[in-house]
Amino acid sequence: MMPEVTLIKVGMADLNVADGGAVLKTTGLGSCVGLTLFDPDLRIGGMAHIMLPSSDIARGEGQLNIAKYADTAVPELVRRLASRGAAIHRLVAKMAGGAQMFAFMGGTDTMRIGPRNVEATKQVLDRFSIRIVAEDTGGSYGRTVELYSHSGVFLIRSVQHGVKEI
Amino acid sequence: MNLFRNNADFKLDVLREVGNIGAGNAATALSTLLNKPVDMAVPTVNLLPFEEIAERVGGSEAVVIAIFLRVEGDAPGNMFFILNREPARRILQGLLGFGAAENDDYSELELSALNEIGNILAGSYLSSLADFTGLRMSPTVPSLAVDMAGAILSYGLLQFGTMGDDALLIDTTFLEGQQEAEGHFFLIPDPESFDKLFRALGVPI
């Protein structure tokens, strides 16, 4: 019998961390970016489902959802992992998503949101000197991703391309 | 998120009527295309958390056929015509007269037929809405995707994303025969468009 694996779901504009072999999963990434950070020594991982590149564009009242924007989600994920004992210099990043689901003529900024999410995420990772060891970004298709907190294995599922491990 | 400060219930009623008029015309157009009766359910208007929007069409990972177009003009927004696989197959069968794709391998002809259906339906939805409100509203060229519902719909939530974690969705379900869902029409006006819609319809803001 297969041992039970704890699955921790990360929603849209949400983030979470996991260890002890639990699996982090986020579904239906389109232009959003699924970013994962992993500390191989401690075998702890974190995942963020990033929707927009920068919190500068946030409007309206109410509390800012820091998991939504690349510039706020990455520091928060790093903080959450560090508070569980992870060392920032050991963290490695894997990411997927940032697709352009629909192609339009003369695309506006909104239309290019996928690539912009990827660029913004990379910029913030760079600020923390976190290395990106694998990525599967761009294209024009949706992805569901899983991070195995024991191994750091990152699985990507898509309708057209099946399952792939990076 | 508190989208409407005053008269919230009345405003939701008005938006329901907006969906009724738009989708009513689109249902008539679909019925003409397929040469059989197409019914629709009373539209629902809800401010929903992003996560729940994909639940309407089977969940974030459910594979759907979606025609997306942007509404341009006085009250911009996003519009989706969404079909699950089986209804899409039935529609193609009815329209083209031969068996549609197994799996998700649609031929160019089938994709182009689906795209054109989306185009016609969105056009009739919007033109009736434009007549009703006196606002200028025109659809962009439609774009089609066969993919996970979550990946597709999140694209229509970006305008709301800058404000909060919910979006206001006008959802109309098309029914075929014995109340079986044939497809969905989603209209997600940009947050700034609501006041324009209400003003055009004489609703106090």
TrEMBL record, chain A:
It comes from the Bacteria. Coiled coil: none annotated. Keywords: Chemotaxis, Hydrolase. It catalyses: L-glutaminyl-[protein] + H2O = L-glutamyl-[protein] + NH4(+). Its EC number is 3.5.1.44. Transmembrane segments: none annotated. Belongs to the CheD family. Probably deamidates glutamine residues to glutamate on methyl-accepting chemotaxis receptors (MCPs), playing an important role in chemotaxis. This is Probable chemoreceptor glutamine deamidase CheD. It comes from Cohnella cellulosilytica. The gene is cheD.
UniProtKB/TrEMBL annotation, chain B:
This is Chemotaxis protein CheC. CDD domains: CheC_ClassI (cd17909). It comes from the Bacteria. Residues 12-46, 109-144 form the CheC-like protein domain. InterPro entries: CheC, CheC-like_sf, CheZ_family_phosphatases. Pfam families: CheC (PF04509). Keywords: Chemotaxis, Hydrolase. It comes from Cohnella cellulosilytica.
